[in-house]
Design goal:
The complex is a heterotrimer of chains A (about 290), B (about 270) and C (about 350). Chain A has about 290 residues and is mainly alpha-helical. Chain A contains 13 helices and no strands. The radius of gyration of chain A is 23 Å and the shape is globular. Chain B contains twelve helices and no strands. By secondary structure, chain C is an alpha/beta fold. Chain C has two domains: about 160 residues, Periplasmic binding protein-like II (D-Maltodextrin-Binding Protein, domain 2, 3-Layer(aba) Sandwich), CATH 3.40.190.10; about 140 residues, Periplasmic binding protein-like II (D-Maltodextrin-Binding Protein, domain 2, 3-Layer(aba) Sandwich), CATH 3.40.190.10. In chain C, helix 2 packs parallel to helix 3 and helix 7 runs parallel beside helix 15. The longest helix of chain C is centred in the first third of the chain and has 19 residues. Chain C is globular, with a radius of gyration of 20 Å. Chain C starts with 8 loop residues before the first helix and ends with a helix. The chains are: A mainly alpha (about 290), B mainly alpha (about 270), C alpha/beta (about 350). Chains in contact: A-B, A-C, B-C. At the A-B interface, helix 1, helix 3, helix 4, helix 5 and helix 7 of A face helix 2, helix 4, helix 5, helix 6 and helix 7 of B.
C-alpha cells in the first residue's frame, strides 16, 4: 500500500470525534469513578467514614486465600483456548460462506450463524446444559445405546464451559472473517494454483496472509468476550471453574463490595490490554505491514 | 458449489471441506433445536426426551404483558444502537485507518476496552455515573451504554476490511474528477460495506442480547427482554423462556435479514 | 387484628381486580392531594404475577399512590450506589442475609416495631427476632427435596445427603452467591460439629459431599430435581410444594435436626421521603387477606399468626407455633463478617 498521506493528521482524523466523545462521557468518566472507588474501603458516597486504601489491590496481590491468581490464570487460559478453537472452526466456515456462489445458500448459512446469537445468553446456556449434563441428550443417548455405562463428564468443568463459549463466539469470528475473505480476490489463489502450487500451499501462501486482518479482528473480539464472560462459566463450569468475571459478579451482586470488584476489573482490564497490544504487535510483524493495528 | 462437484470426479478434499462445514452448522444449531423442542414440550422444565407437543408456552409468552413489552423495547433499543454505532464506529474506523493519527495502536486497543471489562462493571460504573450526574436512568442512557459496547464491534470489523482494500481505487476515482464526498459514498462506502454490515449485525445483537450492562440501567416497567427473562428464570424455569427465545429469534432474524437485503443488495448494485 | 374484608380467593383470582375493588370500599377517606410514588423491590415469577395483578393495584387504590416495583436483581448494589437522602427504594424486599449486609452500610433500618407497623403485633416471634433486621413477612423452610421414583428412602436427617449412593446426584448451591448454600454450610456445622458456627466441621463435611452439583438459584434446583439430574438436594419447601397436583415425582423432607428459615424480609430505607407510606405498605403486606392470597399462591408460610389457610396449605406450611418452632434462624451478622474468608475456603474445597 503506497504511503501518500502526509505526516500530519489528515482532515479525516476528525471522524474520530464522535467516538471519542462517546467514550469520554460514557466510559472514561464512569470508569474513573470506579477506579477511584477501588481505592476506598467502602462507598464514599453512602459512607462518609470511608478511608482511602490500597487494600483491595493488596488483597489480590497477596492472595492469602489462594484463589485470585488461579482465577486470573484460568480466565486467560479459557479465553485463549476459546479463541483458538473459534478460529480453527470459524475460519473454514467463513471461507466456505465467503466463496459461496448461491445467494440462497449464503442467506441460509448466514441465518444459521446468526441464530445462536439471538437466543439470549441464559436460554442458550440452558440449552447446552440440556445437551451436556449427566441426564442430557448426549449422555442419555449414549447410555441407551450401551456405548457407555456412566455419564461422560461433559459439563460442570472447563470442557463444558469452552464448548458453550465457543458456540456463542464462533459467529463473531465467522462474520468478521467473511467480510475480509470476501474481499480477497479469488483469482490470486487460482493464479497461484495454475503456477503449480497445491491447494494447501496456495491457501497458506496467498489467502491466509491476506486474511490476517480478519483473523486479528476476530480473535481479539472473541478473546475480549470470553475473558469477560461470567454467565456461561458460572452455569457450565459448576464448582470446577472460577474466573475473574465470576468473582467480580459475586463481589458486586452478593458480597456488595464494589470497591474490590472495581479493583479486580482494573486488574483484568490492564492484563488483557497488555495482551491485546502485544498480540497486535506480533501479528503486525508477521503481516510485515506497519498499518496493521 | 454442487455444480462444481458434479462436473468433476469425486474430490475427497472438497467433500471433507463441505462435510466439516455442515458439521459446524449442526454444532451451531443444535442448542436452537433443543430450545425449540423445549418450547413445544409440555413438561414445565427442560427435559429429554420430550413427551408431547403443546403451544401452551407460546400462549403464556404472548399473554404475559411483560414479555411482549420488553421484547418491543429491546428491538427498538437495538435498532437505535445499530444506527448510532454504525455511524460512530464506522467514522472512527475511517479516522483510524486513514487519519494518520498518532498513537493509533493505543487508540485501537483503547476503543476495544469496553469489551474486556466485565460488562457488569460497565453497567455499575455507568449507573453510578448517571446517579452522580443526577440524570437518573433515562432510556437514552441505556441506549448510549449499549452503543458504547457495540461500537468496538463495528470498529473492528470495519477496520479489518479497510486494511485490505486497495486505496488506489479511491485515488483513481478522485483523479477522474469525483468530489471527495462522491468518492466516499460511491467508492469507499460500498467497499467497506461488508465490514460495516458485520459490525452492524453485531451491534444489533449485542444490544438485543445485552444483559449485564442493562442490569443496573433499566427502570421498573422499562426492562429489556434479557433482564425480564433472567429474572423470570430465577423463579420459573419453564417453557415460556424457550418460547420467548423462539419468538425473539424469529423477530430479530427478520430484522437482520431485512438489513442484509437492504444494505447487501444496494452494495451489489453499486459494484 | 382480623381481616377487614373476607375475600374469597377464587373471586380475587377470577376478577384480578377483586381485591382492588374491595379495598377501595374500606380505604381511608383521606386521599392524598398529589400522587406519591412508593419505590419497592419485589420478586418475579408467580409471586410477581400476583403482586402485579392484584396486590399492588389494590394498595395503590387504597392509598392513592403509585407503586414502582423493581423486579430486576440485584437490589442492594443499586441501593448502595444511590444517595442516602434520596434512596432508589423506599421498601427493600430481600432475604435475610442481604438485609444484614445492607444494614451494616446503614442502607436500611435496624428494627421495625408495631408502633410503625401495627400488624407486627400479630406476627410469630421469628419474624421480628434478633436474627432479623426489618420484618419477615413470610418464610420458607430449607430442607431436602428428593425424587420419589429413584428407590431412595425419604431423607430423615441432613446427614442422608452424604449417602454414597447419591454421589454426583446430590445438589447444593454455590455458597458465595446463594443464601440457601450458606444456610446449608452452617447446618453442616451443626449436624457434624458443635453448632451452626463450627466452620471447621462444616468444611470437612462439605468435602465429603463431593461430587455435588451446585446451582446459583433455586429455580434451577427445582429444574434439576424435576429432570432427574439431581436425586436429592437442598431446597426450600415452596420450591417443591408449588408442583403440588402436577404429578411430579418429587417431595420435600424436613430433616430431624430442624429446617433453616428462608425469610422474606421487608425493610424501610432511612432516607425514604415517603416513610409513612412505606410503613403502610409493610402493614398491608402483613394483613391476613393479603398474606393468605400470597401464601396460597406461592406456598410461603405466612408470618401473621392470624392467617387461616385452606387445609391443603395448612397441612404443609408452617402455620402453628409448634411447626414454626422447628425453624432455625442463622446469625447472618456473624456469617457476613466472615463471608469473604468462607467464600474463598469453600471455593478451594469444591474445586478440582
Amino acid at each position: 500500500m503506497p504511503v501518500i498521506a502526509s505526516r500530519r493528521p489528515s482532515p479525516i482524523a476528525w471522524f474520530i470525534a464522535p467516538a471519542l466523545l462517546l467514550f469520554t462521557l460514557f466510559f472514561i468518566l464512569p470508569f474513573a469513578v470506579m477506579v477511584a472507588m477501588s481505592f476506598f474501603s467502602s462507598n464514599p458516597i453512602s459512607n462518609p467514614n470511608a478511608l482511602v486504601t490500597t487494600r483491595h489491590y493488596q488483597r489480590f496481590i497477596e492472595d492469602s486465600a489462594g484463589i485470585f491468581h488461579d482465577a486470573l490464570w484460568e480466565t486467560l487460559r479459557i479465553g485463549l483456548i476459546t479463541t483458538v478453537i473459534s478460529l480453527l472452526i470459524g475460519y473454514p466456515l467463513a471461507h466456505w460462506m465467503a466463496r459461496m456462489q448461491s445467494r440462497l445458500g449464503h442467506a441460509l448459512a448466514l441465518m444459521a450463524v446468526i441464530t445462536p446469537l439471538l437466543t439470549g445468553i441464559v436460554v442458550r446456556t440452558f440449552a447446552w446444559m440440556t445437551i451436556l449434563q449427566d441426564k442430557g441428550v448426549i449422555n442419555t443417548t449414549l447410555i441407551s445405546w450401551g456405548v457407555i455405562g456412566k455419564p461422560l463428564p461433559l459439563m460442570y468443568n472447563e470442557f463444558g464451559t469452552v464448548v458453550a463459549l465457543v458456540h456463542i463466539y464462533v459467529p463473531f469470528m465467522v462474520l468478521t472473517l467473511i467480510g475480509v475473505i470476501g474481499r480477497i480476490d479469488e483469482r490470486l489463489e487460482q493464479a497461484a494454483r495454475s503456477l503449480g502450487a497445491g491447494r494447501v500451499r496456495a491457501f497458506v501462501e496467498v489467502t491466509l496472509p491476506l486474511s490476517l486482518p480478519g483473523i486479528l479482528a476476530g480473535s481479539l473480539l472473541v478473546f475480549a468476550l470470553s475473558i469477560s464472560a461470567y454467565v456461561t462459566p458460572s452455569l457450565m463450569g459448576g464448582t470446577n471453574v472460577l474466573t475473574l468475571p465470576m468473582l467480580i459478579a459475586q463481589q458486586v451482586g452478593t458480597s456488595f463490595n464494589p470497591g474490590f470488584a472495581g479493583a479486580l476489573g482494573v486488574i483484568l482490564l490492564a492484563v488483557s490490554l497488555a495482551i491485546v497490544i502485544a498480540y497486535n504487535r506480533i501479528l503486525a510483524r508477521f503481516a510485515g505491514e506497519q498499518g496493521l493495528a | 458449489m454442487s455444480v462444481v462437484l458434479n462436473r468433476r470426479p469425486f474430490d475427497p478434499g472438497k467433500a471433507a471441506y463441505l462435510g466439516l462445514n455442515l458439521l459446524l452448522l449442526v454444532f451451531l444449531l443444535a442448542p436452537i433445536a433443543i430450545i425449540f423442542v423445549f418450547a413445544l414440550n409440555p413438561t414445565p422444565y427442560i427435559s429429554f426426551p420430550p413427551v408431547g407437543i403443546t403451544l401452551h408456552w407460546f400462549d403464556k409468552f404472548f399473554e404475559t404483558g411483560d414479555f411482549m413489552r420488553s421484547l418491543w423495547l429491546s428491538l427498538w433499543i437495538a435498532a437505535c444502537v445499530l444506527v448510532l454505532s454504525i455511524v460512530i464506529g464506522g467514522a472512527c474506523a475511517l479516522a483510524l485507518a486513514r487519519g494518520d493519527l498518532p498513537g493509533r495502536t493505543f487508540l485501537t486497543a483503547f476503543f476495544m476496552s469496553p469489551l474486556m471489562l466485565p460488562a457488569i462493571l460497565t453497567g455499575l460504573a455507568l449507573f453510578q455515573g448517571y446517579l452522580l450526574a443526577g440524570i437518573g436512568r433515562p432510556i437514552w442512557g441505556l441506549i448510549m451504554a449499549h452503543t458504547l459496547i457495540a461500537v468496538p464491534y463495528v470498529l473492528r470489523t470495519t477496520l479489518a476490511v479497510l486494511y485490505n482494500f486497495d486505496r488506489r481505487i479511491e485515488e483513481a476515482a478522485s483523479v477522474l474528477g469525483a468530489s471527495p464526498s462522491r468518492v466516499f459514498f460511491e467508492v469507499t462506502l460500498p467497499l467497506i460495506q461488508p465490514g460495516v454490515f458485520a459490525g452492524g449485525v453485531f451491534a444489533f445483537i449485542v444490544s438485543f442480547d445485552q444483559f449485564p450492562v442493562s442490569l443496573f440501567l433499566v427502570v421498573p416497567k422499562g426492562e429489556t427482554l434479557p433482564v425480564v427473562l433472567f429474572n423470570y428464570m430465577k423463579f420459573d424455569l419453564d417453557g415460556a423462556i424457550a418460547a420467548a427465545s423462539m419468538v425473539s429469534i424469529l423477530l430479530a432474524l427478520a430484522v437482520v435479514l431485512t438489513l442484509e437485503r437492504l444494505i447487501g443488495l444496494k452494495a451489489y448494485v453499486k459494484l | 387484628m382480623s381481616p377487614r374484608h373476607p375475600v374469597s380467593r377464587r373471586a380475587v383470582l377470577r376478577s384480578g381486580t377483586g381485591l382492588a375493588a374491595f379495598a377501595t370500599l374500606g380505604a381511608p377517606a383521606i386521599l392524598h392531594a398529589q400522587t406519591k410514588t412508593l419505590k419497592i423491590t419485589t420478586w418475579g415469577g408467580k409471586w410477581g404475577d400476583i403482586m402485579k395483578a392484584t396486590v399492588l393495584p389494590a394498595f395503590e387504590k387504597e392509598h392513592g399512590c403509585t407503586v414502582s416495583a423493581d423486579q430486576a436483581f440485584p437490589y442492594v448494589p443499586k441501593l448502595q450506589v444511590s444517595p442516602k437522602n434520596d434512596p432508589l427504594y423506599d421498601v427493600l424486599h430481600t432475604n435475610s442475609n442481604e438485609q444484614w449486609l445492607a444494614v451494616v452500610d446503614g442502607l436500611v433500618m435496624d428494627k421495625i416495631t408495631a408502633k410503625e407497623v401495627p400488624n407486627v403485633a400479630d406476627v410469630y416471634p421469628y419474624a421480628v427476632s434478633d436474627k432479623i433486621v426489618g420484618v419477615s413477612i413470610f418464610t420458607s423452610a430449607i430442607g431436602l427435596g428428593y425424587r420419589t421414583d429413584k428407590g431412595i428412602t425419604p431423607p430423615k436427617s441432613w446427614k442422608d445427603l452424604a449417602d454414597p449412593k447419591l454421589a454426583g446426584a446430590r445438589g447444593g448451591y454455590l455458597i458465595p452467591v446463594n443464601s440457601l448454600g450458606q444456610c446449608h454450610l452452617m447446618m453442616l456445622g451443626k449436624v457434624y460439629g458443635k453448632g451452626l458456627q463450627d466452620l471447621d466441621a462444616a468444611y470437612k463435611a462439605l468435602e465429603q459431599l463431593k461430587p455435588i452439583k451446585l446451582v446459583d438459584f433455586t429455580g434451577q434446583m427445582e429444574k434439576m430435581l424435576l429432570s432427574g439430574e439431581v436425586t436429592e438436594g437442598v431446597i426450600h419447601d415452596s420450591g417443591v410444594y408449588r408442583y403440588d397436583g402436577q404429578n411430579q415425582p418429587v417431595d420435600f423432607a424436613s430433616p430431624a435436626e430442624g429446617v433453616m428459615a428462608l425469610e422474606q424480609v421487608l425493610n424501610v430505607t432511612p432516607g425514604s421521603k415517603v416513610k409513612e407510606l412505606a410503613f403502610a405498605y409493610i402493614d398491608y403486606m402483613l394483613r391476613p387477606d393479603v398474606q393468605k392470597l400470597l401464601a396460597e399462591g406461592v406456598w410461603y408460610s405466612p408470618a401473621n399468626k392470624k392467617v387461616k389457610l385452606e387445609a391443603k396449605y395448612d397441612a404443609k406450611l408452617l402455620t402453628t407455633p409448634e411447626k414454626v418452632a422447628t425453624l432455625i434462624q442463622p446469625d447472618w451478622k456473624w456469617y457476613n463478617a466472615r463471608k469473604d474468608d468462607i467464600d474463598a475456603r469453600v471455593t478451594k474445597i469444591l474445586k478440582g
